[in-house]
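ok trying this again, last paste got cut off
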Amino acid sequence: MACFLAIWDVSNHFYLSLILQKPFSMYSRLNPPFKCGILKQKEIIMADRTATAIWQGNLKEGKGKVELAGTQLPYSFSSRFEEGQGSNPEELIAAAHAGCYAMALSNEIANQGYTVEKVEVSAKISLRFIDGKPTIVSSHLDCKAQVPELNPETFLEIAEATKMACPVSRALNLEITLDACLVNPQPRRGW
């Protein structure tokens, strides 16, 4: 079972650090002084996230806005079901899936001992009519990563294993596909 180091600074700000290779005693010597304690993984409470949506009017002529992290994004029938201006719920799901997968993949690669320089992920959420109802049917992840010294075969194994391991993938009940490739620059050779 993984253990985490819980650290509170003198202002009682809470920090959480996975103990990897540093001895516990190292944290007690931090400046300013920190209070430390070990938490088992099952005791950790993850953060809850909130977004708000407001819709005004009927479906076709109405308009709405989604607010998250202090940002308001307008959306409408046209931006959701056609190619109109504004955001839509599927775009937000795509952003969540791309962001989550990028973080999860970076973590898994680092856990294998490699240094990640960059992971870039786009997600495409597909909305189709199923039994006459709009239904999100799939998410396609397109991933490019820059990880020196990682071979393509190992990268693809890690990328594929991570596809269903990130929290957003686990929350989605739909088909998830993945295209992943390394884009490491080739080393320069002499003249």
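PB: full thing came through this time. Residues 89-111 form the longest helix (23 residues).
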